[in-house]
Amino acid sequence: MTIRLPGARGALRIYEPRREPAPYARAVPAARPQSAPASRTVFSAAHVVADPLADTTPDGPAALDWDATFAFRHHLWSHGLGVAEAMDTAQRGMGLDWAAAAELIRRSAAEARAVGGRIACGAGTDQLAAPAAGLAEVRAAYEEQLALIEDAGAQAILMASRALAATARGPEDYLEVYGHLLRQAAAPVILHWLGPTFDPALTGYWGSEDLDAAAAALLEVIAAHPDKVDGVKVSLLDARRETRLRRRLPDGVRCYTGDDFHYPELIEGDEHGFSHALLGIFDPIGPLAAEAVRVLDTGDTQGFRELLDPTVELSRHLFQAPTRFYKTGVVLLAWLSGHQSHFTMVGGLQSARSLPHLARAYELADGLGLFPDPALAEARMKSLLGLQGVLQ
Q: Which residues, other chains included, contact 178 with Cβ-Cβ below 8 Å and sequence gap of 6+?
């Protein structure tokens, strides 16, 4: 009843998996979905499930297993979480092309309506196959995606754009593009500040590599259109900077933490306020996270932290540098948890993390009781190890 796991230096160690899942890992009956947390708005950015039988290449069009992809979203909704669709966690810009993302948005929005699930979808500019000719082309690409999301009946998230980062000359260009989009948005949107740790192509976003100057430009965009901004997702992995920005937001504009290193303290907040959540780590730990926030709803901050703090080690492991490859660990855990039948990713991204990294992710997740069927997770992890020559 043990498993041999490789460490970072290649040595094998013996690990004894747990035999029972934690209570929050058990599936919720479809007839009795849990209510959404009341004190915080909580989104899980959701991964996509590749079609393992598709005859494709890493740089070819994305081929998805639609049934498994939507089954995972129903899993998140059943625990009361919102779904942030077609975002970075779904390999947007790292294997998920715009054609597949557009179909994902339309179909996922329809699934959300059918069950009363909350959904927000990413609008970007990734249909541009070459560098943009200018701001007008960037704006038109954003407009196309924003219109599709609104037509689908979903809330829009204006994602950070590689094309805009490459084209803009300074803060004034961001003010022009975002101002135009916000004026025409049918409903309040979520803005998105994804730092270069997640995507190096976004260095200097909001017109400056000086993060204080960038924050000032973002706040100027929000101040000009506060009625069109539901909130801003901040993914800088800098808790102090996020807290300072949060305190400067206009009344009624939410801060959604995207900080996968410091989320417990940011969601708990302080005497001046708190962050809501839109997190990639809430894909693998969704049921636990939902339970923790429901505990916070009762005012039990200690119970909230006792549940959520132990997950930070796993999150920091999954999101370690190069951070953009965190999706590999997320999909591994979905496979080990039984949410999909294989460990294959669009773009071949299952190869983006080392075997010792994946083994440690398994160990940390098992220690938290995340796997609904620990024996299944153990068997699948052993099969992966065996394929790489680690005999049990």
A: 158, 191, 221
- Residues 338-362 pLDDT 10s: 999 999 999 999 999 999 999 999 9
pTM over 0.90: yes
Q: Report the Cα–Cα distance between both ends of the chain, in Å, rounded.
A: 11
pLDDT: is 157 or 133 the higher one?
157
Q: pLDDT for 59-84, tens place per residue?
A: 999 999 999 999 999 999 999 999 99
Mean pLDDT for all residues in the chain: 96
Could you write out the three-class secondary structure of the chain?
A: CCEEEECCCCCEEEECCCCCCCHHHCCCCCCCCCCCCCCCCEEEECCCCECCCCCCCCCCCCCECHHHHHHHHHHHHHCCCEEEECCHHHCECCCECHHHHHHHHHHHHHHHHHHCCCEEEEECCCCCCCCCCCHHHHHHHHHHHHHHHHHCCCEEEECCCHHHHHHCCCHHHHHHHHHHHHHHCCCCEEEEEECCCCCHHHCCHHHCCCHHHHHHHHHHHHHHCHHHEEEEEEECCCHHHHHHHHHHCCCCCEEEECCCCCHHHHHHCECCECCEEEECCCCCCHHHHHHHHHHHHCCCHHHHHHHHHHHHHHHHHHCCCCHHHHHHHHHHHHHHCCCCCCCCCHHHHHHCCCHHHHHHHHHHHHHHCCCCCHHHHHHHHHHHHHHCCCCC
Residue 166 has a pLDDT of: 95
Average of pLDDT values for 151-169?
A: 97
Least confident of 17-31, 127-141, 169-183, 260-274: 17-31
Output the CA–CA distances (angstroms, integers) from residue 68 to 40, 50, 179, 239, in the order listed. 28, 9, 38, 34
